[in-house]
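Regression check, magnesium ion case 213:
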Amino acid sequence: MIRTRALRYRYPAGTALAFPDLDVPQGATLLLHGPSGSGKSTWLALAAGLLTAGDGDIVIGGQSLAALSRAGRDGWRARHLGFLPQKLHLSDALSVERNLALAFYAAGVAHDAASARRALEQLGVADLASRRPSQLSGGQAQRVALARAILMSPQVILADEPTASLDDEAALSALRLLAQSASRSRATLVIATHDRRVRQALPAALALQLDRP
Ligand code: ADP
Ligand code: MG
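Current build output:
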């Protein structure tokens, strides 16, 4: 479940964004639409607790993000939220396997090699476990990042432009894997996108249209 009320954010540089109120039932899929610059990535960063709303609040699975301290939000994010950023943030100093191990560390839970293996298998990249991220194709790296995002069976999965720079076949496959991953952990899925193919592939999804400030 995601609920926002009177959500606003102002970047120090000046851009002020105000977001429409929103109620997304647990397990539903929301498409966050809007042109470049309309605030999609900002909304995701607010929902992930990476940015702090200047006004208003986001409640995710009963947890008010405004009620958490910064450290509290970091712990909450690591345990309950899967984030597939546009820039994947995989460390090239580490193998795929060890990149996943970091997620356990961030969540403060014991490393569980078997569940990491299972996540890589579910996304069809288990045979790449000992490679470095730079030795992967873009689509493979995205699958690894998604495996990392779902390790803790998150309540919410956020994906930022997951089909950008993918051809039609890879885009469909990425959307299918996201939807499967979400339904496996009964997570609410939010996809920020300005790609028309996403709407076509997920016709039953809820949608929120953002406009440029
Ligand atoms: P989208 O993801 O829809 O393209 P963003 O959330 O990235 O939109 O950006 C929304 C608005 O906020 C844009 O006008 C953008 O220029 C501005 N913005 C984004 N990041 C920053 C930042 N770090 N500092 C100042 N302005 C920013
Ligand atoms: Mg963006």
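Comparison notes: The first strand starts at residue 2 and ends at 10. The CA atoms of residues 82 and 149 lie 4 Å apart. No diff flagged against the previous build.
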